[in-house]
Amino acid sequence: MSSNESAPAPTEPESSPTPPAVDSPPATAASGQPAVEADSSVPDDASTYSDEVKSFTMSLRSSIYDYEYENGRRYHAYRAGSYPMPNDELESDRLDMFHHVMTLSLNGKLHLAPLDKGVKRVLDIGTGTGIWAIQMDTSNLKPGGWAEFHDFDFHLYSDDKSVETEGKVITKWCNVLLDGYDMLGRESTPGPKLEGWAKDAGFINIRQTILKYPVGLWPKGKHLKEQGAFNYLQLKEGFEGLSLASFTRAHNWTEKEILVFIAGARKELSRPDLHFLYNCFVVCAQKPE
Asked: What is the pTM of this model?
């Protein structure tokens, strides 16, 4: 029965008078919000309703999975070009591996911010494929709450100058890659700027930690060796995805030129005498009460 139809009169014996019909009040949702109106353009034919639903959801599905493809890799179509990394399964696997690298760098912790035990409301922004969020929680930052930011200076270097002396291809790859991101309007080296951004945003009790990320099996110690091994794998397998958008869109390299070039970079990355490092910046900051 529709909400604006008259309620039917109750069945009574013939000797009793029939009470007047009373209009039903407009329906409202349990939340107190106005009732949801029906679309009068939807066909009433039940036999074709299933087909109508399928057609409608297929059009939605095509927009949800509306990706762009470049050089054999899949990219976001939403705000195309704003995020220069692929979003395909190869990239998801690399991000999951990098999550392990980051967790190792924190000695198994999921954060450095001094959170209360049993914290229930955590906002997850840009943490990869969702592994970190599954291990934590979700929601908003309230006054007194803590924010924690992780980002990088991806210029590869070494403490013993082995990379600076012998890593010519890797050094060039880093410079071209990061310059390309800057040319595309993306901040290529955000790590060193996190602390200043937190101050500018009005956060207090700001704490910065700089972590060295080794690449390869060269470090001493089981913990650093494991971190370096996984970092080596995610970078070696990620060269193509990291490079393609930057090199083609900003520098006009061809796919063939890129593949030849990163083959040389992979070769240098596999040299055990080159002790690759890069820095991760972790900034914890508190929102004022």
From this structure: 0.66
